[in-house]
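hey m, so remember when u said the tokens were messed up on ur end? i reran from scratch. heres the input so u can diff it against urs
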Amino acid sequence: MKVIDLSSLAPPDVIEPLSFDDVLTQIRSNYITACTNAGRGDLVAAIDYPAEPAAILCEVAAYREMVLRARINDAARARMLAYATGADLDHIGAGEGVERLTLSPADETAIPPVPAVMEQDDPYRYRIQLARQAITTAGPTGSYVYHARSADARVRDVSVDAPAFARRELTPEQRTAAGLPADSIVLDVVRDAGLSNPMPGDVAVTVLSIEEGGVASQDLIDHVSDALSADDIRPLTDRPRVRAASILHYTIEATLTLKPGPDPEPVRQAAIAAAWAMAEQYSELEEVLPLSAVYAALHQPGVIAVTLTSPTQDLAPGVGGAAWCDGVEVSCG
């Protein structure tokens, strides 16, 4: 089952574009019609003067209608998976049987009390999308991803792969020489999916953690492995093999040439913030970080040129890997 990219969806028609000027024009037109029908055409000219009570009331009415229409838009968004946040998203998840995970429980005995730290909206939203793929024991990728993500709130991303094998054709003489039964099957590993000693039925499940450095701890790997091995989740012939992601560490080091101005620091800080945001965007499993994205992030308004020291090429973490930024150092030349 395909997972739809919610960000690629066109804005829904039920969400109305809002324009104060358009609403004010409509209300003024209604006012003119009402005055004319009441035989008070003498009051019409008053709305052309901003200080007149009629003009002020038209603007107040337009503002109140804008507030109401905006509230209707917000209510519509709150019922859509792509836009819902907070408690609204919790209710959508409840309809799919998906609860928000707890990163750390509340501590009511602490002074002051410590609230629970809950799963953020975006990963929770993605799990809700995957929920229907979990209703199977046929072993599709989406089912493994959903159950792995739902096993522990520390899971940031999951990739699923499987080794491939090819049957080796042997002559009777070769079977005899190797001491193999006549009806035996010999398989060669065509692709190991990053597993050591892969066997038919193996499923390679790679886990990227939200914890510092992205490396999943053994405790997290055990949690995910236990969840995927449950009898009501694991297909009978599958053997999930959970592993931590391999991390490709890098730093961003650059020098900016700026347009003449009073203070370069705001531009430098904007470039640093954009670089961190870009690094976050490209930190998912098996996501290639193109060098062009680094340049684009650093090239903020006010920057004439970017001299990039690190990285020097596209970063491809490969199967089961993720690029992880350890730091951003930006100076102004």
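this time it looks ok to me. The chain has nine helices and ten strands. if urs says something different then somethings off w ur setup not the seq
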